[in-house]
Amino acid sequence: MILALQSTLEAGHLQALDRSLMIALAPVVILTIAVLVLLLVDYFGRKHPGPQGGISLQNASTITIASTVLALLGTLGTWGWLNTLPNGPSQGLFPSMIPSASAARWDFAPAFVVDHFFLFVCLLVCVVVIITSLNFIPFLQRKERYHAELFPLLLLSAIGMMLITGSRDLITTFMSLELLSLPLYVMCGLNDKNRLNKESSLKYFLMGAFASGFFVFGAALIYGMAGHLNYTVIQNMIAETAQSVDPVMLIGIGLVGVGIAFKLGMVPFHAWVPDVYQGAPTPVTAFMATGVKVAMFAAATRIVLECLPGLQAELWRDALVLFACLSMLVGNLFALHQMSAKRLLAFSAIAHTGYLALGMVSGTPASGSAVLFYLAGYTFASLGAFLLITWMAPDGQDDVFLDQMHELWQKAPKAAICLTILLLSMGGFPLTAGFFGKFVVFKEAWLAGLSSIVIFALLNSAVSFYYYLRFVIAMYMTPAVPGEASLNPRQMPGGYVFSMVMTVGLTIILGVLPQLLLGALDLTNLGS
Amino acid sequence: MSSLLLIVTFLPLLAGLALLFVPNKEQSLPTVRATALWSSVVTFVLSLFLLPSFQSSSGLQFAIDVPWIPQWGVNFHIAVDGISIWLVLLNTLLFPLAILTSMQSVRLREKMYYILMLVLEAAVTGVFLAQDIVLFYVFFEATLIPMYFLIGIWGGQKRLYATTKFVLYTMVGSLLMLGAIIGLYVKASAAGYNTFDIPTLTSLIGDGSLVLDQQFQFWAFLAFFLAFAIKVPLFPLHTWLPDAHTEAPTAGSIILAGVLLKMGTYGFIRLAIPLFPDAPFMAIGPAGLANLRSIIMALSVIGIIYGALVAAVQVDVKRLVAYSSVAHMGFIMLGLFSFNQIAVDGAILQMVNHGISTGALFMLVGFIYERRHTRLIDNFGGLAAVMPVYYTYFLIIMLSSVGLPALNGFVGEFMILLGSFQEDWLMTLIATIGVILAAVYLLFMFRRVFFGEVTHAENRNLKDLNMPELVAITPLAVLTLVIGLFPTLFFRHITPSSEAFVSDVLTHADDDFETASTDINVEDGLGGFVSFNTNGGDL
Asked: Residue B69: enclosing H or E segment and its boundaries?
């Protein structure tokens, strides 16, 4: 962002800067200010150096939520403002600054774009941040841990998620990727008394480092061939040499793809997902499973649609389709017999990566918005499910096992019904957001001629019903054995209730009236 | 009148949602039961009002058609025609009776039970009324979850196995159908028709404005076929059915056999065949020896014989009735796919008949299970003397299932056999053996349960049917007689609608027959075994 700003200054777009930039980047700007406020208050609030003192959990959470709500409103404002721009809503901001291939090197001017695609992801990220932070306090209090630094970390990561989706330049993408990831490594290791927790943090960090390494190396190779890091320049470069793209360029694109696939948890780069999801504190898992997935898929979709269209389809598409199919297959098969709810949902997340990748790879004009619709449905379902697990988890355990859920329906009927709806949405059952998510994604894939893969994916979702229904069987149909350790859900704090109403409500609303979102998503189509 | 359809569909759903807010306490149970019963009774009475103003000659009527998802051309379009009106009435009739039966037997978590029953009723009505593919799919799937819970919570010993099997079987079929729906939409919108509307698509395909290539038609038909054939169930996709029936609570079995299976056969009439009219006639296999239609007819006949033979060796009455369902549904499929006017009419009436007879049989089995907590044939004997009223009702219903003239089963089966004989005498001949077998296993079971000495001391003091049970079973028994004696009352509405269906299919069959020697090699030298000659017999 800074670079974009700086170069805007240099390029003499002063008029554009004063107001437009602030409006355009409203969500990012607001959250950045919030981070600074949180850190400064924390620092100056301390009387002595050390863990004591500083900002209280309650205040940190209030500031975080208030600023994110503000950012959400800001995003909506920008959304409307973008429609009033003279160059039309579909163009987004800064499109005129895209240079020709002959532009000077190290010109970062076109590093960023503000369009509806970006703004929609901002909205989703804001919702994720609000709902996650509402649930941090009860969680932390129960664990008797008071990490107010969690909140600035959360916001920093959210800023990274937003920036990566607007990025149109490999360096900006890389920096946003790091901004997104580094706070998460810390957040994963929050509960340092727990062995799984440490494993999760270290594993995530190492895998993330690998992914970054691949990404940077690939970007370097691309830069070597194209002389530029901007998506449009790379796209033009590829288009010019369409029939004989240099192998080094292909290797570069492949390595960038591997880096992103690591972050997405796509098979065969998925091995970290179950361990990290299971080991991380559950609210962090909720944030990670939804926010990172949304941001990385949005970034990847932008690369596919704005960087690769000129590339001969069979070169990268076949590979991606293969990975998508493997993700569905591996995710679904490994999920079948998991006993840990978090681990099961982790494998199901891998499967969802496969469905999403199918939508992304289709590369049709509307595939960007299809992926966003799916992501929205998946986000609400996954967020709600992980937060329910957070709440249900018995003392001294940060996970729920399926056999602990017996007769949950008797003890906590509302929670059981909520979880059922969220899981049905994940499975893609009609009248939930997940159904129309699958519908749009598969429709785009079919349009792109991947009909047999769509059938494969549909059969996979039939398999997935088996393990989603295992929850239902556990909650409703299995009597609790006396003496068996089973859940005794505590009173649900207000934050959870609000989160549940939001996630379940949005899941059903999008499942019954998808046109509410479809209309907005029509603006988010990518591609030139 | 249009709003009447809306009310009939959603009144049970609203009642179910209202029940959510009733406190889950012992003293509110009468309210729960009364709400469930009376809302379903009112729904039935309201649905009866459809009949007087129904114009049998004007096809789909009472339509409500409002945009639902305008971006994709999905409409909320419900309407009723001469075929679906009977299925809707069957549905609204069976639900109050099933709920009444449940009041005697269900003692566990009643509130949730009745909520699920009411939701299920709304969903099934929706399936029969939907005139938009997406809407149909939504209702079709929505029936799954209530039934899943009904079997899974209130079922018997092996309920988890049975209910999971039921859901997964159905799910595989319907997800493949979803794939075909997506494909159809992509093809239709590529041709400029951005719609999911069933009548629109059917007529576009029927008059050749929208041409789907043969390969797509074949695979898409196969996907729809799987979804509906699993539901019917057609041999060899039937294995979920005996398990589901055996484990389901009585009301669950009544609904499952009575209306849920009909969604499969109805799906063929409404969607699979009209949308892909060439597919049943496409040659497949080496040298085009067979086409899909002949394969489906063969599977139906195998189902008839197989279902009857397996039913004959069952020791559990409920399982016996379940297998008899497989056989009876085979008749319906045989009639449908013979594409003969008489047989199709018979098949449609038989859908209603089967719902009444088998629903009533499951109800009767449930009555005796409540008293003895067993369903094994060996545990009974001589019940005719102990429970004369029960014996009489069982006799009527059992004979209707056997197909005794003057009862409803006879009309349907006779017409199916009469019509399909003109198309394929050999298969019809084999199917007729199934009629005899049905008499064998049902009468054999009946004799062992009701005649002879009372062999078990526990059976001596069994109470005969009480008032609620009589109220539940009498309408069904009366209907078997009414349909058996006055079938024309029903055909008056069925025939005009089914004529459209049959003539539509036959146009395509003729087209295919003409082109058979050129591009699709359908008919070569198998004589009458696989016949396209739909106008006359080929004996």
From this structure: strand B61-69
Which residues in chain B touch residue A458, judged by CB atoms under 8 angstroms apart? 175-176, 178-179
Nearest to B75 by CA among B176, B224, B201, B251: B201
Closest CA to A130 of A1, A25, A30, A2: A30
Instruction: Yes or no: say if B357 and B480 are a contact pair by the CB < 8 Å rule.
Output: yes
- Chain B nearest-CA distance from A22, in A, is 34
Percent of chain B with pLDDT over 70: 93
Of B138, B160, B171, the CB nearest to A477: B160
Quote the minimal CA–CA distance from B90 to chain A in Å.
25
B235 lies in some domain: no
Question: In the numeric block, which tokens belong to residue B342?
Answer: 């008489």
Q: How far apart are CA B49 and CA B45, in angstroms?
A: 7
Checking if the pLDDT of B225 tops 80, the result is yes
Q: What is the pLDDT of residues B306-317, one digit of tens each?
A: 999 999 898 888
pLDDT score, position B132: 93
Confidence check: pLDDT of B51 > 50:
yes
Closest CB from B137, B159, B172 relative to A462: B172
The pLDDT of B376-385, averaged and rounded, is 84
Q: What distance in Å separates residue B69's CA from the closest CA in chain A?
A: 5
Structurally, chain B folds into a number of domains equal to: 2
Residue B260 and residue B291 in contact, taking contact as beta carbons nearer than 8 Å: no
Q: Do residue B332 and residue B439 come from a single domain?
A: yes
- Residues of chain A with Cβ-Cβ distance to B69 below 8 Å are 514-515, 518
Tell whether B332 and B255 lie within a shared domain.
no
* Structure confidence by residue, pLDDT tens digits, B113-123: 999 999 999 99
Q: Check CB contact of A466 with chain B, cutoff 8 Å.
A: yes
Alpha-carbon distances, residue B68 vs A500, B81, B196, B508, B524 (angstroms): 27, 22, 11, 32, 48
Least confident of A49-58, B429-438, B527-536: B527-536
Closest-CA distance of chain B to residue A379, Å: 22
Shortest Cα–Cα distance, A457 to chain B (Å): 9
- Say how far apart CA A285 and CA A345 lie, in whole Å: 10
Averaged pLDDT of chain B: 86
Contacts of B159 in chain A (CB under 8 A): 477
* Tens-place pLDDT, residues B259-287: 999 999 999 999 988 888 888 888 776 66
B141 band by pLDDT with thresholds 50, 70 and 90: very high
Q: Please, which residues 209-248 of chain B have a Cβ atom closer than 8 Å to chain A?
A: none
Residues B257 and B314 in one domain: no
CB contact under 8 A, A476 and B148: no
Position A260 scores a pLDDT of 92
The burial class, CB within 10 Å (0-12 / 13-18 / 19+), for A219 is buried
In-domain check, residue B285? no
In this structure, is residue B486 part of a structural domain? yes
- Which residues form the domain of B336? 298-512
Claim to verify: residue B253 and residue B392 sit in the same structural domain: no
Whether B137 maps to a domain, the answer reads yes
Question: Considering only CB atoms, which chain B residues are within 8 Å of A472?
Answer: 148, 152
CB contact burial A28-44 (16+ within 10 A = b; e otherwise): bbbbbebbebbbebbee
Q: Which residues of A touch B137 (CB under 8 A)?
A: 430
Q: Does any CB of chain A come closer than 8 Å to the CB of residue B191?
A: no
- What are the phi and psi torsion angles at B283 (to 5°)? -75, 135
Contact A446 B186 (CB under 8 A): yes
The list of chain A residues with pLDDT below 50 reads: 1-3, 5-6, 8-9, 12-17, 88-109, 528
| pLDDT at residue number A493 | 81
Q: Which of A378-392, B204-218, B383-397 has the lowest mean pLDDT?
A: B204-218
pLDDT higher than threshold 60 for residue B538: no
Chain B residues lying within 8 Å of A476, measured CB to CB? 149, 152-153
